């Protein structure tokens, strides 16, 4: 999963650097990755990070373990 996410982020960075708007980048992703594509909202959030100068493509380290759910 992490490798797939990183690949999609590379594509998003390419789209961003090419000057495409987030909505067009989302359409392009959806055409190629169909059900595995990010939502348009997620694409916009990633573009916002790129505009702010954060062009890291790897997942950031998390400070704690994920919460376990018990029933």
Distance between the termini: 26 Å
Q: Domains counted in the coordinates: how many?
A: 1
CATH architecture: Orthogonal Bundle
Helix coverage percent of residues? 55-70%
Instruction: Examine the coordinates and then state which fold CATH places here, giving the name of the CATH topology.
Output: Arc Repressor Mutant, subunit A
Radius of gyration: 14 Å
Low-confidence spans: pLDDT under 50, at least 5 residues? none
Mean pLDDT: 88
Structural classification: mainly alpha
Strand content: under 5%
Written account of the structure:
Residues 7-54 form the Mos1 transposase HTH domain. InterPro entries: Mos1_HTH (IPR041426), Transposase-MT_Hybrid (IPR052709). Pfam families: HTH_48. It comes from Necator americanus. This is Mos1 transposase HTH domain-containing protein. The chain is mainly α and 71 residues long. The chain has a single domain, classed as Arc Repressor Mutant, subunit A (Orthogonal Bundle). The chain contains three helices and no strands. It has helices spanning 2-17, 22-33, 40-51. Helix 2 crosses helix 3. The chain is globular and about 45 Å long. The relative contact order is 0.17.
Quick overview:
This protein has 71 residues and is mostly helical. 56% of the residues lie in helices and 0% in strands. The chain has one domain (2-51): Orthogonal Bundle (Arc Repressor Mutant, subunit A).
């Amino acid at each position: 999963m992490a490798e797939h996410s990183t690949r999609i982020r590379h594509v998003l960075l390419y789209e961003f650097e090419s000057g495409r708007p987030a909505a067009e980048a989302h359409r392009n992703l959806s055409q190629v990755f169909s059900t595995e594509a990010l939502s348009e909202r997620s694409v916009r959030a990633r573009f916002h990070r790129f505009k702010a100068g954060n062009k890291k493509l790897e997942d950031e380290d998390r400070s704690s373990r994920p919460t376990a759910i018990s029933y």
